[in-house]
Amino acid sequence: TGRLRATLRGHAGSGLCLQFDKVAMARADSREDGEPIGDEDEGDGFMVSGSSDCTVLVWDLRHLWKASGGGRASGTAVNAGPELVKRVLRGHSGGVLDLRIDKHWIVSWSVLA
């Protein structure tokens, strides 16, 4: 529709890259309590983002999807923050410039600081 669906806040630095997969990672990954992060029947998604703050954030978009009206074009834009971040991956010494995901892996790349 070209309309803003959500504004996500979580990184301390600039967002430099992200990967989104509506279903593949949601079924493969699970929270600490063993429940899947997403459910393809509800249109949920899984996203990872990299930042100049040297972190990769793993986002659970289930609640965001519901709050923004699901698949309805008339849904209102939502502001969301750290409550959607399920994991913070650290280890880079420079900004995370690129990443890729599949149902088993998150691979990220950065420059040396």
Q: What is the overall pLDDT average?
A: 79
Number of strands: 8
N- to C-terminal separation?
A: 40 Å
Biggest sheet architecture: 4 strands, antiparallel
Q: Over all CA atoms, what is the radius of gyration?
A: 14 Å
Low-confidence stretches: 24-29, 37-43
Instruction: Give me the secondary-structure category.
Output: mainly beta
| Helical proportion, percent range | under 10%
Proportion of beta-strand residues:
35-45%
Order of helical and strand elements:
EEHEEHEEEE
Task: Quickly count the helices.
Answer: 2
Strand line-up in the sheet with most strands: 2-3-4-6
Dominant shape: globular
Notes on the structure:
This protein is mostly beta strands and 113 residues long. The chain has 2 helices and 8 strands. The longest helix has 6 residues, at 62-67.
Indicate the topology.
Elements: E1 6-8, E2 15-21, H1 24-28, E3 46-51, E4 56-60, H2 62-67, E5 78-80, E6 85-89, E7 96-101, E8 106-110
Parallel strand pairs: 1-5
Antiparallel strand pairs: 2-3, 3-4, 4-6, 7-8
Comma- or semicolon-separated keywords:
about 110 residues; mainly beta; four-stranded antiparallel beta sheet; two-stranded parallel ribbon; about 35% strand
Summarize the structure.
It contains 2 helices and 8 strands, in the order E-E-H-E-E-H-E-E-E-E.
